[in-house]
Amino acid sequence: MTYAEVKVEVDACRRALRNSGVVKADRVGIISRNSFEWAVYAYAGYGLGAVNVPMYEQQKESDWRYMCEDSGLKILVVNTEAIYETVKCFVGTVGNVERVLCCGFPQEHPDSWAGFMESGHAIELDDNPELSSVNSSDLATIIYTSGTTGVPKGVMLSHGNLCSNIKGVVDATEGWKTRLVTHDDQSLAFLPWAHSYAQTCELHAGLAVGASAAIHNGTPGDAAALLENIQAAKPSLLFSVPTLYIKVYDGVHAKLAGETGVKKMLMQSALDVGEKVRKIRAAGEEPGMILDWQHQMLDKVVLSKIRDQFGGNLRMAFAAGAPTPIAVLDFMESIGVRMVEGYGLTETSPVISTTCPDPGVCPAGSVGFALPGVDVKLMMDGVEVEGEGELWCSGPNVMQGYWQKPDETAEVMVVEADGKQWFRTGDVATIMNDGNIKITGRIKEQYKLENGKYVAPAPIEGAMVLNKVVAQCILYGDAKPFNVAGIVPDFEVVAKELGLEGPDAEPTSICANPLVQDFVSAEVDAELASRDVAKFARPKRYLLIAEPFTAQNEMLTPKLSIRKPAVLRVYKDAFDGLY
Which residue positions does the secretion signal occupy (predicted)? Predict the structure, then answer.
């Protein structure tokens, strides 16, 4: 659809909302995967001054009920008939819900989205609700943080918050050779727009520059459908969490390990030459004539085939939501895909910083420079410090607060004597002399071993998951004599490596097999040693877990982060039994 056609639909939706009694500051919600209807509904609400409350399809009925009750939303749009049947009882019983609409119903159904939109189209075109009453301080959206602990908190973001972040993402490239998002770009929208990362960076920033998006028609975790859609859409941009890039990294190295003879030599040579060229360009230079020729030949034969997994047209890949292992960043760059890492939180709209895609500007492992207009500093025990400290952020991107939670807001928002307001990110960081930011841990996740040594789990978990046998993992060891780890193996890889078939290849059998336990332990131990993880921090024992962490068993957030408290509620006794 063209931008003009989208505008017609947004205007019709805005008229239908107004005709349904929605006025400025009313909350309107949606439970849906990414869709055209999602975008139309959001922008129609924004234009009317209503407050968008997005939710995830993967959440439970109790989560939807809580968010509808807490936000007091008026109209709820859902994607499927199954969800409609679950939440239709909310009308008149939960908060202020007056109506539930379903995108999956035929137009003649009284609660169909199609019928709702038709009512908007039927209103005279010159009877459009005015847009001028919306200003930058008005509330635009309440995004509930799924979080890995506790009850969801509604993050209040104003129109000014969102627009400042969109402008910051676009303006960040001033003076850079490479633009982050351009008019000619097309993304494949598979990360949920209900999360602020995909919503701001892909949907809003993309529309701001006139880019386009193809919409993934599966769930974010549906790998087969995602790969199929990548091939069909051939995106120039991908917005993802690191998991996708890690899977490609693991897949390529597993294939390399299984090759022999000329094929293996050719593949290894291509990866080696790609890495040499990456290092040279990172130093601000260009490869010599012979190396450049080798690179072009091997790129045509090998590296371009790897890039074809991303559709063959990928210009740039964005990663956020969790740290991307440096080995994966280097790998992606060496096969010819420019990587951009962003950092932020829902509370900061969400982007605080982004790396520059130009070679050599941002060292691997950094999350780049703060966006224009965003200030950062390091604090420890109430005093600004150099070196390492908690990262605080100030700027027009910082939220208004948590919806109806003044005490929780006061815990993270600090107004200093000069009147400047700062947000405490909870992340430990360092800021380099040139302004590059490096996140080194999370305050609430860091812990001490029994010997008093501090452990930051994220980098160690990131190193473990690089091994082909590890699908998911968590580190455990607070106040213990040493670390242990819980690992969900890649069952297919393990079965293939050890020649397991039939019942022996079932997850429960694999995890109970002493041969597998020894194999996985050896693989992970070697991986951590190769990544220079400090010996005291390496796990000494491993718990193999047969059930993957998923949103359905509440061990993953909708953005695919592991909910450690939920995992520990199930496996804590098993972890303690390793000591």
Answer: none
Reported as half-sphere exposure (CB side, CA atoms, 13 A), residue 546 has a value of: 11
- pLDDT of 220: 64
447-577, which class in CATH?
alpha beta
DSSP string for residues in 55-105: E-TTS-HHHHHHHHHHHT-SEEEESSHHHHHHHGGGTTTSTT--EEEETTS
444 compared with 214, residue with greater pLDDT: 214
For residue 516, report the phi and psi dihedrals to the nearest 5 degrees.
Answer: -65, -45
Q: Distance from CA of residue 390 to its chain's centroid? A: 22
CA dist list (Å): 479 to 79, 428, 452: 46, 20, 8
Q: Which fold has domain 3-134?
A: Rossmann fold (3.40.50)
What is the residue extent of each domain of the chain? Answer: 3-134, 447-577
Encode pLDDT of 536-565 as tens digits.
Answer: 999 999 999 999 999 889 898 877 789 898
413: Cα separation from own chain's centroid: 24
* Per-residue model confidence as pLDDT tens digits over 24-53: 999 999 999 999 999 999 999 999 999 999
Distance, in Å, from the CA atom of 272 to the CA atom of 275, rounded to the nearest integer, reads: 5
Whether 148 has a pLDDT exceeding 60, the answer reads: no
> Whole-prediction pTM value?
0.87
Q: What share of the chain is helix, strand, coil (3-state, %, to 5)?
A: 40, 20, 40
| Nearest-angstrom CA–CA distance, 249 and 388 | 31
CA distance 228 to 485: 34
Sign of CA dihedral 168, 174, 177, 179: positive
